[in-house]
Amino acid sequence: MASLGSWREILQSALQSHKHLKHTQHLQLATVRADGRPANRTLVFRGFVDGTDKVQFTTDFRSQKVEEMKHCPFGEICYYFSESWEQFRINGILELISSTESDPLKKALREKAWFDSSPRLRASFGSPYPGHPKTSEIQLPKLDSSQGPLDNFCVLTLDPKEVDYYDAKKGRRIIFKLLAKQSDDDANSVWSQQEVNP
Amino acid sequence: MASLGSWREILQSALQSHKHLKHTQHLQLATVRADGRPANRTLVFRGFVDGTDKVQFTTDFRSQKVEEMKHCPFGEICYYFSESWEQFRINGILELISSTESDPLKKALREKAWFDSSPRLRASFGSPYPGHPKTSEIQLPKLDSSQGPLDNFCVLTLDPKEVDYYDAKKGRRIIFKLLAKQSDDDANSVWSQQEVNP
């Protein structure tokens, strides 16, 4: 068969062909709870961490997934494209970059993600504790646009190890596996690629 | 606060308001693999099993999720509605109804689900083994419209225990928990309902 290129190239092309749709940035992330049961929720795709294959999200430090990651650091993204019927299942390792981060590059990444966020999203990190009973109308803080990240603001990344790509229109399914990675610089990572039965 | 009604009523209303969109039947199901890592994939919502709250799907007996269910029978659905920004996270117990099913009601359910399926979907259950390396062009069997279910055809159900509903436009989140159930007849099941912080 003719190669389709890397999974990053195929994903880029799916994103491009769906960019007219508002909901294209939404995907689902599965994790495992402390009791061993699965969890699943919609997240907004915030692109890739520069120079790497890491998928980037934002999250609240108080959310359940932060607790879940301590027990099981693995996550699986399901990214489905509604018009082309393409699905990417991206399995990998989750990492949290929180207010206590000491690595200068990661600190800078968190800072940048904060200033890339909308005022509405930023204010949400000053909300009452997520998941606790609602006791009153929610008042979000009014933040100055120059104010840095609130403590609850975190960047969440998923470092892909395997990608299961399925094109339901063409009946084509390809499994990509990470074979080797020389460093955090994914320019040098090596992936295998195998077409399988859908 | 004014009650919004049961989660079934809210879901019904979301389905109704999105029925003009083809992709509205697509949701994501998270499970846990034998190695304890999460899995996630898109499935087509096939409604509820008559007279119950069980969410219904079809699946191939040879798919990975059938293997995963043996290790962990729990699943979590993430059902996101792209226009209203409503999300339903439905956590519950998975059950497979396969060709070896002996319960007469479940056998009849599987039969009905088969004849409700499109010819294209039916033929897919005669495909080469899913996930195995592709060795040749895929020839699907030509089935007579009166032919009963192929052996690989299964019905998969998820029996909800908890529903986490979030309306991102209104900033409203409600947790529904199954308190008691008298029988498989869900007409008598009792749910609690608690509004929580988003």
TrEMBL record, chains A, B:
<keyword id="KW-0288">FMN</keyword>
<dbReference type="InterPro" id="IPR000659">
    <property type="entry name" value="Pyridox_Oxase"/>
</dbReference>
<keyword id="KW-0560">Oxidoreductase</keyword>
<dbReference type="InterPro" id="IPR024624">
    <property type="entry name" value="Pyridox_Oxase_Alr4036_FMN-bd"/>
</dbReference>
<comment type="pathway">
    <text>Cofactor metabolism; pyridoxal 5'-phosphate salvage; pyridoxal 5'-phosphate from pyridoxine 5'-phosphate: step 1/1.</text>
</comment>
<dbReference type="InterPro" id="IPR012349">
    <property type="entry name" value="Split_barrel_FMN-bd"/>
</dbReference>
<keyword id="KW-0285">Flavoprotein</keyword>
<comment type="pathway">
    <text>Cofactor metabolism; pyridoxal 5'-phosphate salvage; pyridoxal 5'-phosphate from pyridoxamine 5'-phosphate: step 1/1.</text>
</comment>
<dbReference type="Pfam" id="PF12766">
    <property type="entry name" value="Pyridox_oxase_2"/>
</dbReference>
<protein>
    <recommendedName>
        <fullName>pyridoxal 5'-phosphate synthase</fullName>
        <ecNumber>1.4.3.5</ecNumber>
    </recommendedName>
</protein>
<feature type="domain" description="Pyridoxamine 5'-phosphate oxidase Alr4036 family FMN-binding">
    <location>
        <begin position="6"/>
        <end position="97"/>
    </location>
</feature>
